[in-house]
Amino acid sequence: MDKVKEVLKKNTMLVALIIVTVIFSIGTGGKLLYPRNVAILIGQNSYVVILAVGMLMCILTGGNIDLSVGSIVALIGAIAGTLIVNMNVNIWVSIIVCLLIGILIGVWQGFWIAYIRIPAFIVTLAGMLIWRGVALIVLNGLTINPFPENYLKLFNSNIPDIFSGSINITALLIGAISCIIYIALQVIKRINAIKKGYEPEKVSMLAAKSIVFSVVIMVLAYTLAKHEGVPTILIILLAVVLIYSYFTNKTVPGRYIYAMGGNEKAAKLSGINTNKVLFFTYVNMAFLSAVAALVCVARFNSAAPTAGQNYEMDAIGSCFIGGASAYGGIGKVSGVVIGAIFMGVLNNGMSIMGVDTNIQKVVKGLVLLAAVAFDVISKSRKK
Q1: Would the pTM of this model clear 0.85, i.e. be above it?
Q2: What's the CA gap between 341 and 321, in Å, rounded?
């Protein structure tokens, strides 16, 4: 019983996500989990996952946030539209230019935050105004569309089925391979723990986790197989999540971010260049904002002056709902993904049920407040 309580405590938001999904599935008469709606859910929340991963790293440094990400999305989208649609520049050259501009924006903001030590809130608030203004200048207040088909296919297509049939077999194979890789990694992790003399995870717990994960993945794969297969954007999201999960958990620079968030003064005294760490997190945030912009313009098939509005709120909300601490030093990429899916299920579920938009905002605000309050209360009890 104690083990069950411990597992539930560690996976509170995952349990909450399952409960909310079940509630909205019942409330919508099962429409929430229709294959088409699941595919839409993935597409609609792709930018949230990308931005939230970057935002997590900012928050980890000590509760810092980036308010400029929505405006950066608008600006990079405007530049992409100008290059690809108006000037007919090669799409790969345009993508590289957009990513480089995103990095330069991060360098600008990171310099003021990390080396001049102007509070991140002020610098990114200024950035929110500056980059939105520049986006309006680039677009001249107009919307650029449509984008060429070869660009849209990079983000909006599905992995083609190598078999022919009424259901996409390739999607099921991708799901099965994902399950095998996950189980293999868990087994390797347990073997390494034994070799190093650590207490390994119990076989029963490992088996339970593997079964649950495999069931969820195969249900998702089957659902997508009944629609049009695995979206390419899902592969991009998986790549982002896996790369940043590895970076934060297995690399020295990634652990530096957690160390700085835990206690910056102690991290500095131990030899960590905290200025460099802080600088990197904001350059990385701007880079991921550029990636999100490229995804968004492909999804909406346009670059608009109003693009990216409130995107920073979605990213911040996903981080805190996913278990990131408001004080920094605590949070996982996997938790952020759960937070983003949670927000997506809330949005889609309430939209399908016809809930008023204003009420949706109230609900999301209350959920965010509850997540942060849970974090603060839990810390105060430990003290």
Answers
A1: yes
A2: 10
